[in-house]
């Protein structure tokens, strides 16, 4: 799973015993050489789908990490792209490794996604692989913050993978990981919030609607289909509605 240039087990242990923010600061230099980076196999079909909806003027990558999603936005936005993350270490790597060349202006902003410093300035927001860092009770605030950052009619897009069934080894691996993290966070401070099974589609759709979005989805057919014929992944596209959104409590 890890390359020779990736983090060692000792480094991963130190990171896992740190806070979420500090853990990613430590992991940042080796992050792109771990399986935690969203793979191009997911990024590419998302980019192609967004191209059919755009172009967009300004795009925001929420919890941008080292910038994989920003690269997607640079290809579908014409004027401005912003990556926001709470980890200074991840942003530093993103800024240093951003590909040169023409395209929209790229900015990097350090901020918590639960308190985004933007007000109605983006046409498109994306996020990749970050939702496990938010507890279910935090989703309404997160979605409300993204909605506030979008212009009326702006879109919030992110891929969702079909959950593995109990006949899959991955199902039990993710279940075991989440159980381990719950024990870790019960007995150790600071907490490191990362769970794989706290983002069910039904709850996500409910929270998006309550935050003031209408939601569509499109299959990411390049990622294949399950044995029952259902797509392995979909792109959720939430559109900011004109009606006022209910206030989210912190």
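-> sequence recovered:
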């Amino acid at each position: 799973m890890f390359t020779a240039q990736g983090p060692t087990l000792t480094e991963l242990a130190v990171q896992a015993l740190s806070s979420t923010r500090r853990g990613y600061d430590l992991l940042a230099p080796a992050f792109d050489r771990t399986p935690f980076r969203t793979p191009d196999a997911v990024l590419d079909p998302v980019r192609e789908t967004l191209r059919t909806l755009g172009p967009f003027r300004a795009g925001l990558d929420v919890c941008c990490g080292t910038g994989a999603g920003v690269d997607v936005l640079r290809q579908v936005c014409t004027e401005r792209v912003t990556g926001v993350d709470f980890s200074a270490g991840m942003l530093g790597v993103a800024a240093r490794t951003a590909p040169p060349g023409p395209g929209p202006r790229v900015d990097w902003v350090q901020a918590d996604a639960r308190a985004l410093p933007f007000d109605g300035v983006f046409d498109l927001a994306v996020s990749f692989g970050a939702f496990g860092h938010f507890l279910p009770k935090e989703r309404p605030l997160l979605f409300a913050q993204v909605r506030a950052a979008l212009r009326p009619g702006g879109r919030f897009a992110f891929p969702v993978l079909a959950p593995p069934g109990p006949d899959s080894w991955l199902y039990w691996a993710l279940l075991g990981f989440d159980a381990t993290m719950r024990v870790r966070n019960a007995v150790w401070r600071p907490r490191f919030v990362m769970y794989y099974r706290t983002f069910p589609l039904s709850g996500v759709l409910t929270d998006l609607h309550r935050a003031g979005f209408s939601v569509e989805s499109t299959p990411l057919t390049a990622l294949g289909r399950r044995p029952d014929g259902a797509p392995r992944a979909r792109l959720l596209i939430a559109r900011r509605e004109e009606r006022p959104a209910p206030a989210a409590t912190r």
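The chain has eight helices and seven strands.
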